[in-house]
Write a structure and sequence with these properties.
By secondary structure, the chain is of the alpha+beta class. It has eight helices and six strands, in the order E-H-E-H-H-E-E-H-H-H-H-H-E-E. Strand 1, helix 1 and strand 2 form a beta-alpha-beta unit. The protein starts with a strand and ends in a 5-residue tail after the last strand.
Length: about 150
């Protein structure tokens, strides 16, 4: 299964996060579409009532079954498909999820300003840390057996 990710390529924070995920994600798991380009029109999305304006107000992803996810739910899916299971579980955690749901609209409204504060570098570091950890943990589990002592 693949996930199609619609992101704001004009936003330095968004672009940095997507570029990092693109580097660490399993090959073929994600397809990225910059919805910020002038004249952007995804006929399938438009037919389903998802416009460029909607996509610019929150991250949107669509799975290969045609299900749409936006905002925090989109990040849960993106991180999961992108091989970042710990980040996916963190964002979906029953305590964290409502907090992120409240914070995310503020982040979207202020994403260009937040980009100027160095948040793209911090996000890059967090994603790379989680990717290295996931890779290390997958090497520790072979043939269905995990060596907990080495974790």
């Amino acid at each position: 299964m693949t996930l199609t990710v619609y992101y704001d390529g004009s936003c330095p924070l968004c672009r940095a996060e997507i570029n990092t995920i693109r580097e660490v994600a399993p090959e073929g798991a994600l397809t990225f579409i910059d919805c910020s380009v002038p004249g952007f029109d995804d006929a399938a999305a438009h037919h389903e009532g998802v416009s460029q304006e909607n996509m610019m107000q929150a991250l949107h992803v669509r799975d290969s079954a045609g299900h749409w996810f936006k905002g925090v739910d989109a990040f849960v899916q993106l991180y999961g498909y992108g091989g970042l299971a710990q980040l996916s579980r963190l964002w979906a955690h029953p305590v964290i999820y409502p907090v992120m749901t409240r914070i995310y609209p503020w982040v979207v409204r202020n994403r260009y300003w937040l980009s100027s504060l160095g948040l793209p570098a911090a996000t890059d570091a967090l994603i790379r840390f989680n990717a290295r950890r996931a890779q290390r943990n997958s090497r520790l589990c072979e043939n269905g057996e995990c060596s907990l002592e080495e974790r």
